[in-house]
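Lab notebook, bench 4. The sequencing result for the construct came back, and we need a structural model before the next group meeting so we can plan mutations. Quick request posted to the team channel:

Model the 3D structure of this chain.
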Amino acid sequence: MSSPDEPSTPNGEVPPSQAIIEAIAAHEGVDVTEIEPPAYEPLFTAVNPEALDDLFRTAAGTESDAVVTLEYEGYEIVVRADGVEVLDRAEDESVSRQIEE
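Done. Here's the predicted structure in token form:
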């Protein structure tokens, strides 16, 4: 999860690691600040947030065609260049969170 002291991406978009946290918060109907220990495992227990963000960071004018799927807090998370999808494995519901450009 990013902190207020971390710089934003060059074009102001939300990095995928933050988009995951925001999508889970939206899915659960809680504030994004509530997605933290001890109630939730740190995101780095499922994926290296910096490596994930770097994977989707591309040169200006290009778009990454990468797709990353991971499990976090009982959800299946699908990360693409245009957003994050949270699939609730128990209820078969999903929430998508677009990465703002």
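The beta strands are 67-72, 75-80, 83-88, 93-98.
Will bring this to the meeting.
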